[in-house]
């Protein structure tokens, strides 16, 4: 009998941390919706969150432990890992072992990994993908406030009168928060929004002012703002005197940043800059909301501090509707920071000082605690490459895709003797390099806590039984800890046991006021039922603040030794690389609306690929024309580090010397689109965060004489294609391939020899051919059904589109297979804009041409934009473009 129940949990994607209501029936998720009570989202979900149930299922999961490609049982896997680590430590010392963790682990998993590595194995080399993401923001908060602490909360974004979004495409990357901003603007016509981004993004939909600055020029703008505030006496002198240090030096060094100077450096109009400066100066409730356009830079830490300086100078901090808000990317980047998962931290917001090492050693009852900071991500993989690190355990991240200089990382792992990878998915670019594979439970199976961008701790709850033999990360780590001889320290029997220990450590030797801000000691006595029922709560949670703390630094007291916030003085700089005759274009990388990172989850849901199903480089049409490229052509994007091959997508929202490539595609989804391979390993000197947002690049055309789309029930061998990408079809019916082949490609031979990896050849096929334009069409079928369809043409624009291709497998009458061949050249309905209601670009444009004049009206007619709202910026963009065209 089926049992259907609703469980409250938290979305595993972005740092907004939305509460999700999940209906489970018979160990299957049948529906997800936003949790009306959760303070992050009050019932809303974005398109990724609302497609969570479509990404589940056993297919593609890593189901059993493997050693050198052989399936083993858990006792063998645990024993092998423990023995390897012990013998390597014995021979080469603890620092020959590294851990590379992830902001997507639950706090409990993270805590155990950090404790095992730093506390008992004794290695310092424990870093995390948060290095690539938040480390500059962390370093700057620590420099300014003495602690890694986000002062603000989501309500502040609704309460402010000026919201400055810097290097954030929140419309796509933090969509529910962006909808909250949109509603705030509707409710408060005074609210002004400024977007600072070299591209015109979907986020500009809300902007009263868009500063399309020269890439990397942000610190000129904020240093200029400090100069303007000081010069025009807009500073809060009392606040500066009572609560800060270093103001005079910061202002002195900002002296050069006059309006004219900044305008020239950032390539902006003086008038626009003045407008922004004047708005900031005259608005008491001002928020600056910043993300990877700031952090992922060779001077990211200084940029974050340049922003914080302006808030300190005006006292716009620790008050309702005011503050510098670094938005976190991953669902538990915060939790990782709290347990001390970065290489320069020991544990629980404690740096490596002798006092802290003593405190932690005592608390963990260990004599092996590591004594100094370890290697940061880029250096850590370099140490793997040069053999200094002999064993690396990678948990919950895919560095072969996400690191800069990614081919070097790949080679380093391929050449390393002991690569242990814990993942939920069997085939990723990183699992391909592992000797030992450990199957981890994923979202929906595991249980624990995550902390969102506003310091709010929420529960992720277990809803389903584990797939195959997958185990929780904390369990795997604890078992290894026990097998290594640390039974006592790793005798946890549930995530709650770990959480209360973590909470206790946060309060340990932390009694005097303001010693360490991160303190959740009031949660250290939670019983199992209390933990299970834990309601979302913002840290610090202490005896004095048992209900949590919505806003920090309201009393003007900071976590620095003097109790005062620090102004940080720096010299503004542009990106390290410069454009040149060989590499004349500025390559920017970032995210798309419907994909999550390396696609191991979102790449499983067909609906999330309807918007964009292949890797691309966005190029201004004029630049494309210069390189003899048109929309849809195949192009090479080259840098001094490597080359990728992706299709050109026209985008007049970019400036002419700019390119944009999404980060998501990798070896599992495309032949040559792993953008990390072209990124130089240039990092910020303070934080070690890579400069992902700027690479000097070249673009050139790749002549493609034969293009084809294939739909197949099974995965195909792609080695005979010169370029390919793949995406899943609805309901796991099969796969859609977009490929490039030589003009004289022999499809018959391909069908006969290469076609099916998992089943025997199909029985027969229908065929049409027009050799003059390489127009070949095949429907291959078995007794039961269509197995494979191929449509090739010299001109890509003649190929059928995704929506039409999706329905091929529903054609079941054998006599009608021919009609598919005949109908394949019908018009392509364009990409899907609204993923919730499957509304294509073409239908939207038609409705606009027929008179719909607003997003609301389009929603009324077609329903688009009326569910999650993630597509509203694109609806507005289509409205303005189409109306423009009609004018
Ligand atoms: N859909 C989706 N959402 C996500 C994720 C995802 O994979 N997919 N990942 C999550 C994670 S981990 C993160 S870290 C966040 C990232 O969230 P965001 O930082 O919002 O996303 P990005 O697309 O990386 O980059 C943001 C913007 O920085 C701009 N930029 C580039 N160079 C500069 C510059 O020099 N100055 C300024 N001011 N801007 C610049 C880019 O043009 C881009 O629009 O997203 C989170 N949310
Ligand atoms: N060029 C460029 N590169 C970038 C960026 C950029 O903007 N430009 N952004 C950087 C940023 S901000 C980030 S955050 C990184 C993200 O990059 P990654 O962290 O490498 O990307 P993910 O795809 O999120 O990898 C998560 C992996 O963990 C697995 N997994 C999921 N849940 C669990 C679990 O519970 N347990 C275990 N053991 N495994 C699990 C997934 O299957 C997947 O393989 O990329 C960085 N790289
Ligand atoms: S905004 Fe979307 S991806 Fe982010 S937590 Fe909410 S539902 Fe998940
Ligand atoms: Mo991130």
UniProtKB/TrEMBL annotation:
PROSITE patterns referenced in this protein's UniProt entry, alphabetically: 4FE4S_MOW_BIS_MGD, MOLYBDOPTERIN_PROK_1
Gene3D superfamilies (UniProt xref): 2.40.40.20, 3.40.50.740, ADC-like domains, BFD-like [2Fe-2S]-binding domain, Dimethylsulfoxide Reductase, domain 2
Signal peptide positions (record): none
GO molecular function: 4 iron, 4 sulfur cluster binding; metal ion binding; molybdopterin cofactor binding; oxidoreductase activity
Residue ranges constituting the 4Fe-4S Mo/W bis-MGD-type domain according to the UniProt record: 4-60
Name the record gives this protein: Anaerobic dehydrogenase, typically selenocysteine-containing
Gene Ontology cellular-component annotations: membrane; oxidoreductase complex
């Amino acid at each position: 009998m089926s049992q259907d129940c609703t469980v409250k949990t938290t979305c595993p994607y972005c740092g907004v941390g939305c509460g999700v209501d999940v209906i489970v029936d018979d160990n299957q998720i049948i529906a997800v919706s936003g949790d009306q009570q959760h303070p992050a989202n009050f019932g809303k979900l974005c398109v990724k969150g609302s497609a969570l149930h479509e990404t589940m299922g056993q297919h593609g999961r890593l189901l059993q432990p493997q050693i050198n490609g052989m399936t083993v049982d858990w006792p063998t896997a645990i024993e092998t890992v423990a023995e390897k680590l012990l013998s390597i430590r014995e021979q080469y010392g603890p620092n020959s072992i590294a851990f590379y963790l992830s902001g997507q682990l639950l706090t409990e998993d993270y805590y155990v990994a950090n404790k095992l590595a730093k506390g008992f194995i004794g290695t310092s080399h424990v870093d995390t993908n948060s290095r690539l993401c938040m480390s500059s923001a962390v370093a700057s908060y620590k420099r300014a406030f003495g602690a890694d602490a986000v002062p603000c909360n989501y309500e502040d974004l609704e309460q402010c009168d000026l919201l400055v979004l810097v290097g954030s495409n929140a419309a796509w990357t933090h969509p529910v928060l962006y909808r909250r901003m949109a509603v705030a603007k509707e409710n408060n016509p005074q609210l002004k929004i400024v977007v600072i981004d070299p591209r015109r993004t979907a986020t500009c939909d809300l902007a009263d002012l868009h500063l399309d600055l020269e890439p990397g020029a942000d610190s000129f703008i904020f240093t200029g703002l400090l100069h303007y505030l000081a010069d025009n006496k807009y500073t809060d002198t009392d606040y500066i005197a009572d609560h800060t240090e270093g103001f005079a030096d910061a202002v002195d060094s900002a002296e050069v940043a006059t309006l004219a100077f900044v305008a020239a450096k950032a390539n902006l109009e003086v008038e626009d800059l003045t407008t922004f400066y004047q708005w900031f100066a005259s608005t008491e409730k001002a928020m600056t909301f910043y993300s990877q356009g700031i952090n992922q830079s060779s001077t990211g830490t200084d940029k974050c501090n340049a922003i914080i300086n302006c808030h300190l100078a005006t006292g716009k901090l620790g008050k309702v509707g005011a503050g510098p808000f670094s938005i976190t990317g991953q669902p538990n980047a915060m939790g990782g920071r709290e347990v001390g998962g970065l290489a320069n931290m020991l544990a629980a917001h404690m740096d490596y000082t002798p006092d802290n090492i003593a405190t932690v050693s005592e608390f963990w009852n260990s004599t092996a605690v590591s004594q100094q900071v370890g290697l940061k991500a880029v250096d850590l993989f370099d140490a793997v490459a040069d053999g200094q690190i002999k064993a690396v355990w990678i948990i919950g991240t895919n560095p072969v895709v996400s690191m800069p200089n990614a081919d070097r990382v790949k080679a380093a792992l391929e050449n390393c003797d002991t690569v242990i990878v814990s993942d939920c998915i069997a085939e990723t670019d990183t699992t391909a390099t592992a000797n030992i594979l450990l199957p981890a439970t994923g979202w929906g199976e595991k249980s624990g806590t995550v902390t969102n961008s506003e310091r709010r701790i929420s529960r992720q709850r277990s809803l389903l039984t584990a797939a195959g033999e997958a185990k929780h990360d904390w369990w795997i780590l604890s078992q290894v800890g026990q097998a290594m001889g640390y039974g006592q320290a790793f005798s946890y029997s549930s995530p709650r046991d770990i959480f209360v220990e973590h909470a206790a450590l946060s309060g340990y030797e932390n009694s005097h006021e303001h010693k360490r801000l991160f303190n959740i000691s009031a949660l250290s006595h939670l019983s199992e039922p209390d933990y299970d029922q834990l309601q979302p709560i913002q840290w610090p949670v202490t005896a004095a603040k048992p209900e949590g703390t919505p806003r920090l630094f309201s009393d003007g007291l900071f976590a620095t030794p003097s109790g005062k916030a620090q102004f940080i003085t720096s010299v503004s700089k542009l990106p390290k690389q410069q454009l040149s005759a060989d590499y004349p274009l500025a390559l920017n990388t970032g995210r798309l609306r419907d994909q999550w990172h390396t696609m191991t989850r979102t790449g499983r849901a067909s609906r999330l690929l309807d918007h964009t199903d292949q890797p691309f480089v966005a190029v201004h049409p004029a630049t494309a024309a210069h390189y003899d490229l048109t929309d849809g052509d195949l192009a090479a994007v080259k840098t001094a580090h490597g080359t990728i091959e992706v299709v050109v997508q026209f985008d007049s929202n970019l400036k002419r010397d700019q390119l944009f490539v999404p980060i998501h595609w990798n070896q599992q989804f495309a032949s040559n689109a792993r953008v990390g391979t072209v990124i130089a390993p240039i990092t910020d000197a303070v934080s070690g965060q890579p400069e992902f947002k700027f690479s000097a690049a070249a673009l050139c055309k790749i002549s493609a004489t034969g293009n084809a789309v294939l739909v197949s029930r099974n995965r195909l061998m792609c080695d005979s294609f010169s370029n390919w990408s793949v995406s899943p079809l609805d309901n796991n019916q099969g796969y859609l391939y977009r490929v490039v082949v030589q003009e004289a490609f022999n499809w018959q031979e391909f069908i006969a020899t290469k076609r099916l990896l998992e089943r025997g050849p199909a029985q027969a096929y229908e065929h049409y051919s027009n050799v003059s334009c390489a127009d070949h069409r095949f429907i291959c079928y078995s007794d039961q059904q269509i197995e494979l369809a191929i449509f090739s043409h010299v001109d890509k624009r003649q190929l059928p589109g995704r929506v039409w291709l999706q329905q091929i497998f529903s054609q079941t009458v054998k006599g009608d297979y021919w009609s598919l061949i005949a109908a394949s050249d019908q018009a392509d309905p364009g990409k899907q804009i609204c993923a919730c209601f499957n509304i294509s670009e073409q239908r939207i444009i038609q409705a606009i041409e027929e008179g719909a004049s607003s997003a609301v009206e389009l929603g009324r007619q077609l329903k688009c934009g009326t569910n999650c709202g993630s597509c509203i910026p694109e609806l507005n963009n289509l409205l303005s473009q189409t109306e423009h065209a009609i004018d």
